[in-house]
Write a sequence for this structure.
């Protein structure tokens, strides 16, 4: 019932790539791994699929066992918790199930939204949660959305979650996505000794695959498999060809007009200012960002984008795109602001 936790677990704190979208959850998770603390109990982490919730929960379990090897630690998905509970009912072993679960020092339940609508299991879980916390045990939970958005969730369970610490993991910004790719490549160094992966290709992946680290790493593996494994050089053109279907599938349907309107509102400008010939910094930079996003989020050609910006030449658009890419690579705060604007535009259309 209580499997051993491997101290060599691949999901650890030291290989979790930290950035503004997940730094609070990472810091609180490290505290929770050190032992029960009232203000972190229970710890509830929520965020979309593939953003690192499972990594953090398993890292907590791993670190807790390293700190105290005798500690009784159990990591389960909510589905596994339900299956174990149902099995105990059928085998008339409910008391044994309760005793084993409630005697833990640390219980981690992943994807707890799976409990929604399962009244009997939620009833047992509420009592288990109360008993564990009362006995000094630590509880860590995760879900793909805030507790308030999980339908048919027991009000007592919602109350417990609100009584601890709630941490949200956001989608990573450009700088963090690039760092995730860079670290993944460093881990591949032993496997592919002569691998040369240009920075332009890293930028391309980080720009185009913005959904989750899981899909980002999947795209990286696709490129590596189609190049390094067969002796092909990694180039931007090759990467674009390999990931063409992936990029097209993930491209959000926004128009240049949407981008101009959203960028103007984001920076407190009028659309006339954005399209004007004025060259003051507070107008030029937002204009360049709008051109960059038009290139990233629409299928419009460079000349077409230039035309939508008061008839500018396509070379002006190229310069804008290169400038924004360079600034994003050099300044993580700037990259996060561009990413925030991109998210605001895609949320409107999603």
């Amino acid at each position: 019932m209580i499997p051993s936790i491997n101290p060599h677990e691949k999901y650890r704190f030291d290989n979790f790539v930290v950035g503004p979208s997940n730094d609070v959850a990472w810091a609180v998770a490290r505290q929770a791994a050190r032992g029960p603390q009232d203000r972190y109990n229970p710890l509830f982490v929520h965020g979309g699929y593939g953003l690192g919730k499972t990594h953090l929960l398993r890292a907590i379990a791993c670190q807790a066992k390293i700190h105290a090897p005798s500690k009784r630690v159990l990591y389960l998905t909510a589905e596994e918790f339900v299956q174990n509970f149902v099995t105990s009912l059928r085998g008339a072993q409910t008391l044994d199930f309760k005793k084993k679960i409630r005697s833990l020092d640390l219980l981690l339940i992943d994807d707890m939204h799976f409990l929604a609508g399962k009244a009997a299991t939620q009833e047992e879980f509420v009592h288990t949660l109360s008993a564990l916390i009362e006995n000094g045990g630590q509880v860590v939970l995760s879900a793909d959305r805030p507790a308030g958005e999980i339908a048919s969730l027991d009000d007592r369970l919602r109350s417990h979650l609100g009584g601890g610490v709630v941490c949200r993991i956001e989608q990573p910004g450009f700088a963090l996505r690039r760092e995730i790719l860079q670290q993944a490549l460093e881990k591949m160094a032993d496997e592919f000794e002569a691998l040369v992966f240009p920075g332009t290709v890293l930028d391309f992946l980080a720009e185009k695959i913005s959904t989750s680290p899981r899909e980002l790493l999947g795209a990286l593996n696709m490129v590596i498999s189609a190049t390094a494994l067969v002796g092909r050089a990694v180039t931007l053109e090759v990467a674009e060809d390999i990931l063409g279907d992936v990029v097209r599938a993930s491209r959000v349907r926004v128009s240049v007009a949407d981008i101009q309107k959203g960028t103007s509102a984001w920076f407190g400008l009028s659309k006339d200012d954005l399209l004007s010939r004025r060259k003051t910094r507070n107008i030029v930079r937002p204009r360049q960002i709008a051109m960059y996003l038009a290139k990233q989020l629409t299928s419009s050609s460079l000349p077409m984008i230039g035309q939508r910006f008061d008839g500018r030449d396509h070379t002006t658009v190229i310069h804008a795109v290169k400038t924004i890419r360079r600034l994003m690579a050099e300044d993580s705060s700037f990259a996060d602001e561009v990413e925030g604007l991109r998210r605001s535009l895609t949320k409107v259309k999603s």
Observations:
- Residues 156 and 213 are 33 Å apart (CA to CA).
